Amino acid sequence: MWIVELAFTSAPERLAARPVHRERLTGLHRDGVVRMAGPLADDSGALIVVDVTDRAAVQGFLAADPYFSTPGVEVRGVREWSPFLL
């Protein structure tokens, strides 16, 4: 599993792009690819937990969603995660 860490600014493009992005994540959640996703309580960023095999698959996930290159959205980190409880 992988954790994608995002940072946000107040750019209006981010808010305009968010509904389509959330619809996409909801579909990927149904498919078992996205395990969890959501903004931080202060809306300064978000975390997404992705259940894919390797970094190349995470990069494909990021490349397929225009939200990740929208003004106001910055991918701050991609980390492999090995949970022992789900």
UniProtKB/TrEMBL annotation:
Pfam families: YCII. It comes from the Bacteria. Residues 11-82 form the YCII-related domain. InterPro entries: Dimeric_a/b-barrel (IPR011008), YCII (IPR005545). Belongs to the YciI family. This is YCII-related domain-containing protein. It comes from Actinoplanes xinjiangensis. The lineage of its organism: Bacteria, Bacillati, Actinomycetota, Actinomycetes, Micromonosporales.
